[in-house]
Amino acid sequence: MNDILQKVEAFARSAHGTQRRKFVDEPYINHPVRVMQKCAGVTNDLAILSAALLHDVLEDTPVGKEEMQAFLQTVMSVSQAERTVGLVIELTDVYTHAAYPKLNRRARKAKESERLKTTSNDSHTIKYADIIDNATGIAGDDFAPKLLQEMRVNLQHIPGGNEQLYREASDLVREELIKLGKAT
Question: Is this model's pTM higher than 0.90 or not?
Fold first, then answer.
């Protein structure tokens, strides 16, 4: 499995190219790798771990679903590739500014949070790991209160994934909001 995950990571690395994180000056690929590592602490499910590595590819790169599916079918079974792509699709924002320019951020994020309710528990597990990585140390950023509140709302809507990661994500978001004096 490690060989497969190395190939999936290389695909994600290539897709993200020279992208950098917004709030931390580091190569973007570091984020999905940490998300996958966090998931690996609670599961060895290849589709979950692969989707964790790929979770931002469809949303943030020119790579499309068909290209991702074709690549995955070269390194894993068709059913595993389909499941992986399905998880990535579940984790890909639908209510983006580009798709819904007349909606403000608050309205888009509210619709996205409602959409997340309909996604699988496996995608929730990946989302918890994503939230953990995104929330870690965010309190120093000016936009942090808004992001942390959005994370808190998302967590309230998706309690069905791995319980350990859910608790960790919920605790971390609460602690970061407390640091900012925004906990309620």
Answer: yes
